[in-house]
Amino acid sequence: MHYEQSDLQSLIKSIKSYNPNTDVDEITRAYGYMVRAHEGQFRNSGEPYAIHPMAVAKILASLNMDDATIIAGLFHDVVEDTEITYEDLEYLFSKEIADLVDGVTKLKQIKFKTKKDNQAENLKKMILAMAKDIRVIIIKLSDRLHNMRTLEYMTREKQIEKANEVLEIYAPLAHRLGMSTIKWELEDLSLKYLEPNIYQDIVNKINETRQQRESQIQNIIRQFQNELEKCNIKAEIFGRPKSIFSIYKKMYKKHLAFEEIKDLSAIRVIVNKESECYDVLGIAHRFFRPIPNTFKDYIATPKPNMYQSLHTTILAHDGRTYEIQIRTWEMHKTSEYGIAAHWKYKEGTSNKKSKYDSKLAWLREIMDWQKDYTDSKEFMDLFKEEFANDEVFVYSPKGDVMDLPSGSTPIDFAYRVHSAVGNKCVGAKVDGKIVPLTYKLKTGNVVEILTNPNSGPSKDWLKIVKSSQAKTKIKQWFKKEQRTENIVFGRDMLEKEVAKMGYSFNELLKRDWLEEIASKLSFSSLDDLYAAIGYGSTRVTQVIPKLKEYHKDYYETDQVVNKPNHVDFVNEEPKESGVVIDGIDNVEIKLAKCCNPIPGDEIVGYITRGRGISVHRKDCSNVKSIDDKDRLIPVRWGNNLLNRNYQVELQIISFNNVGYLAAITKVISECKLNIKTFNTRTNKDKTVTINIILEISSSSEIDTVIARIKNTKGTIDVFRVNS
């Protein structure tokens, strides 16, 4: 088809402009294969689907990407949307291309219950994919950019969902990768769909003043160009309008009207050598009036995304202020395309990453801390903090530069130096003066950390620090160094939250429920869950709703059902529960889990709707709290209770004596009773609370074992647990 050939020629022309040695035949073959694979498929716009992968390939070519990445861009949807497999791509093209396509495909395959879970897990997958090959994310960003360009064909609900996702994940990723052209367009398109009226209002006002602004800035550029030529400096100078989204942020962050924003455009000066950047800066400050405290040297201290430039703001002869950005052509390329400008694979070295791989240290850092967060909201919040555009640059006493999120403290700085320095931090000096650890660092501060080898971090630091690195290292310290304390602390936090909600300890915190919840949250044991709550990586509010679901299943008692008007007396044999209800036959009988009645206990039945009769001990607190006594009916233990086992829970309070657990275990064994579960915790007063669930056949057995445990050295108290 004609559109196919014209698109293909346009793509090849774009690639050859920066890579004369491109394999035209391979690009052509891949293009034809992609078109055939998507034949018969259409986008929401009604256009042939092949237009989308071609658009993605063109975006990748605009980023000067290598042939393998561009071909993978053409194929990025074929494994998911057609019958073509990974093996087909590997056989017909290369393993490198197949791996890139596989990486992009896997980012789309994860589905979770909530949008927040789905978003967080997708982000984790992207981080892992980036660590393997950054080109996977460059393809994904290009894919998302074209989808945003064609978002008008989606439903309003989808438009809002996709635009929010871009602002929360994709634009920050593009920023951290230094891909400013991609970032700016993604942000502008997101604003267009999230705030259409505001977006259009800003666009209209920009257009209304464009001619005047362009005339003003061209006049400044001519004056400055003449000054540089007098000094024999060859430079290209041009104006750069601010993005619509950046104008929007400034308006709403600083509560300004559009007319109050003075720096709608910046002036860029591009030179050939780094030394000329500083020469140009000196000329700018002589020719114009520099605004104090606006100079920033990102050449000496590059941003984490590799951005380098000199920034200064001047007052021009027309009375207006302008920001001037001065950089070399190499720096300019990096500022526009970021990591994509340097991620080149030369023939014969396809597995060797460029020297700029060292600039991706932040990826390893994020991979480190993302493992410690099971909660989606907390993980997303940390991601947003870490990728925030605002940052401060501070110095060590030796002159090393550290970049930190805006609002960081000396503790953040200490952990950026080394985790050992952070863990032993006891104080700090900023610019030679002692400051509190809560002090907010500012760009240019010289920070010295005071340490004590016998000190450790405080849990309160988690409320103070700003950087995700510091939060992760603090939590790791507590996780490793204070596991026992964390287990006790985590359990205590859970108990307090349960009590605050009006439940008793044994009513909601059943061990089998907690163990199932721990497993669902990917913990290998209940103690691991307690420890995670104790050191802060898992919140109590993640556990409580799940416990309430179990509580509802086991304890919920519905409205009373009508009791039979008349029944003949029946002398029943006891059912599986061992309980007989005189006068009622063929009804389901269950022993209540809240009080676990056993033969010998005085019992009563509770009529439920559709769930039979629930049998409780008469002294059960749930029974005592029932207002409508008509729900209660007489029940009794049957006569034939041989070979029936029942569960009963004991709680023991003891001194923390060595060998005590072995002693009571021996007592239980001598009583020929089976232990179902066994759980201990240390109290603040250094006593120990032990909860044991035993299998018994009668109340006499429990009386015997209680008496023997009471006589065991170290016992303070022992009693059967009631609801």
Walkthrough of the structure:
Residues 649-723 form the ACT domain. The protein is of the alpha+beta class. The chain folds into five domains: 2-196, Hypothetical protein af1432; 390-479, Beta-grasp domain (Ubiquitin-like (UB roll)), CATH 3.10.20.30; 482-552, no CATH class; 557-642, no CATH class; 646-720, Alpha-Beta Plaits (2-Layer Sandwich), CATH 3.30.70.260. The protein is 48% helix and 15% strand. The chain is built from 29 helices and 21 strands. Helix 2 packs parallel to helix 4 (67-74). The protein is elongated. Mean pLDDT is 80; it is low at 110-114, 345-356 and 557-574.
Blueprint (SSEs and pairs):
Blueprint: H1 2-16, H2 24-37, H3 51-62, H4 67-74, H5 78-81, H6 86-92, H7 95-106, H8 115-132, H9 135-149, H10 156-176, H11 180-194, H12 196-230, E1 236-241, H13 244-253, E2 265-271, H14 274-287, E3 289-290, E4 296-297, E5 310-315, E6 321-328, H15 329-337, H16 361-370, H17 376-386, E7 391-395, E8 401-405, H18 410-417, H19 419-423, E9 425-430, E10 433-435, E11 447-451, H20 461-464, H21 468-481, H22 483-500, H23 505-508, H24 511-520, H25 526-535, H26 540-555, E12 579-580, E13 589-591, E14 603-607, E15 613-617, H27 621-624, E16 632-633, E17 636-637, E18 646-654, H28 660-670, E19 674-682, E20 688-696, H29 699-710, E21 715-720
Parallel strand pairs: 2-6, 13-15
Antiparallel strand pairs: 1-2, 3-5, 4-5, 5-6, 7-8, 9-10, 9-11, 12-17, 14-15, 14-16, 18-20, 18-21, 19-20
